[in-house]
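Hi everyone, sorry if this is the wrong subforum. Our group has a chain we'd like a structural model of before ordering constructs, and none of us has done structure prediction before. Sequence below.
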Amino acid sequence: MYDDVKDYLAFILKRNGFRVKKDYRCPEGWIDVAGFKTGFSVGIDIGNPENAISKLMSYPFSIRIVVCDDCDYESNDIIVTDLSGLCRVLNIECSPSFEEWLKQRRNEDYELYRIAFEHLREKLPDDAVARRAMDAIIYLYMAEEVIEDYSGKVTEKIPFVRLYPTLVECGLAIRDTKEIFAPKTFMTSLTREVFRVAKVAVRERIREKRREIEKIIDEIGKDVLYIITTGLAERKGLVLKEMDVAKFEVSGESLDEIYYSILPIFASVDVDEILKMFYGKEFTPLTALCKVMSYTVFYHKAREMFERLFKIGLTSKVPVHDYYGEFFGYEYRASKEVAEFLSKHAYAKIDDEIPRKFYNILLLAFLKTTPTKDLKVALERGIVREKPGGLEVVDRERFKEFIKARMARIVAEAVESIFSSRASSG
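Answer:
Right subforum, don't worry. Here is the predicted structure as C-alpha cells:
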C-alpha cells in the first residue's frame, strides 16, 4: 500500500500543476515525493514522522508534510496529516479519490507486467525460464548497465548473461558495443519502456520477500541500517563498493574502549581512499559521517546486508571494469524502491555536534583553512603550515595518521551515541 500512496501523491500533485519528483534525494536521505511550482515547493514523506524529519529539514522546502494515519506527533517544522487531510493543507483538488485511482492504476501496471511476462513465455521454453528472465530484468534495472561478454576477456561471473540476448531480441534490453571490445562484448541495459515493468517487478519482489527483508533489518539493527542508508544513498538508490577493510569487532562501553576497538579499522584504510568518496559529490556533515562509518566500522555489516539482499534478488552485485575491460572489483547496487523500503525501517539518534566535528576534520583533510580546533593542533604539531591561498602538508604520513586518529575518535563518539540510545530504548 505504501508504494500506491506514494504514486497517488505524485499523480495528484502533477494534476495540480506541480513538477514532481518521486524518491527525491535530499541531502540527508530519500523522501517519497517532492513537488515544485514557481516560488513554492513541498516535500512529502509517508510513515513515521520521527524517521522523516531530519531528511525533510535538510532541504529548503516551502512546506514539509508527513502523511501518516493515526500519528500523534507535534512539531513546528513539519505538518503531520493523513491522506485526506493533505489536500486541505495544500489547498488542492484530490480527484479521483485514492480508491478510484488505485483500481485503475493497478489494472494498467499489472497489464503491462503481464504482457511483458507473456512475451517472455512465448520466446522461452517454460515458465521457470521466463521467471528467470524477469529476474534478469530486475537485475539490469538495479545494475543500470552490465557487460555481456563472449570474448573470454572478462572472466568474472556476469549474472544472467545467457538471458540477455533473449531480452534484446524481445525488445526489452539494448546493446551498446564498445569499440575496444568489438565484436564479442557489449554493454547491456534495459530499454526506457521496460523501466516501468521493472519497477512493478521490484515492488512485487519486495512484497514477496517482505518477511525476509524485515529479518535482515532486525539482525543488522535499525540504527546501523540508518547509518548505511544515509551514507550510501546516491541518485538512483544505494551503492556499496568493494573495499579491503579490516574486520574488527566494535566493542566496549566507554568512549575510550570503543575508540581503541575502532582504531585498527581506520589504520587499515587509506585516507586518500576515504577522500575519493567525496570528489564531485554533495554531502552534509551527517551524510559524510555516515558514509565513512559505512566504509569502516560498519562496512562488513553493510556488505552482509547487500549480499543477503542479493541472494533474494533485491540488489545487484555488478562486476566493474574500466574502458579497456580491466576488472577492478564489484559494486552492490539497490534501486530507489529498495532504498526507500529500507530507510522506512531505519532510525538512529546521533548528537548533532558529532557530524559537525566530523565535517571539520574532513575539511582539514581537504586542506581547507576553516578555523577549527583540529587545524590549530595540526599547525602546532607542525603537520601542516599555512601558505598564501591555503594549507600545505609538511609531513604526509603524520598528517594521514592525525586525520585517521581524529576520524576514529569522532566515529567512536557516534557509535557510543548509538549504543547508549539502543541501551536506553531496550
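For your construct planning: The mean pLDDT is 86. The first strand starts at residue 19 and ends at 26.
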